[in-house]
Design goal:
By secondary structure, this protein is mainly alpha-helical. It has one domain. The chain has six helices and no strands. The longest helix is centred in the N-terminal third of the chain and has 27 residues. The radius of gyration is 18 Å and the shape is globular. It starts with a helix and ends in a 5-residue tail after the last helix.
């Protein structure tokens, strides 16, 4: 799926502002509602991370060197980073290190594996098949490439919109009358 959608889905599914916040949403240690929720931005970032840490490096380099954004001539190290950030082993090691370093990242960092799980059915065969079992195997599930099938692309954005709408409706319906 496209990178921005991964961030939006990560934010709705892995932040206290999103669905995990329950009926109250983000609250501080005293039980007061928070207007600024750091887990929203962290989940958005973790949702973007696997693509930014691989293809984003290539695209940024091309952009800053005046080459524009090119899909051809991607260096091999970018595919190595792609495999690492999109494999269960890479996720397990990365997630464990993150949570060991800062325990409060346990929820927003789940946007990283969510990103990869969404990629499995939305990436077809080829260089960008999701390498779940890398480095042990290059095999992957041949899904429906979102860049070839527009329904997959639009369906993902519709699903994200419905999830955020669900958050709003649930929070409004759970409000106590004053």
């Amino acid at each position: 799926m496209d990178t921005l959608l991964h961030g939006v889905l990560g934010a709705v599914a892995c932040s206290r502002t999103g669905l995990p916040g329950g009926r109250r949403g983000p609250v501080d240690e005293r039980g007061r509602r928070q207007l600024a929720d750091w887990t929203l931005w962290a989940a958005l970032g973790f949702g973007l991370f696997p693509d930014i840490a691989s293809l984003g490096i290539h695209f940024a380099t091309d952009l800053f060197t005046g080459n524009g954004v090119r899909w051809h001539g991607i260096p091999d190290f970018v595919f190595l980073l792609y495999n690492l950030t999109h494999s269960l082993l890479g996720i397990a090691i990365g997630y464990a290190l993150l949570v060991a370093w800062k325990r409060s990242l346990w929820l927003p960092a789940l946007a990283w594996p969510l990103h990869v799980l969404v990629d499995v059915p939305t990436h077809g065969d080829g260089r960008f098949i999701t390498p779940l079992f890398w480095p042990f195997s290059d095999a992957g599930f041949t899904g429906w490439s979102w860049w070839i099938f527009p329904g997959v692309f639009y369906g993902g954005w519709i699903a994200a919109g419905v999830l955020w709408l669900l958050v709003i409706v649930l929070r409004l319906s759970w409000r106590k009358p004053t």
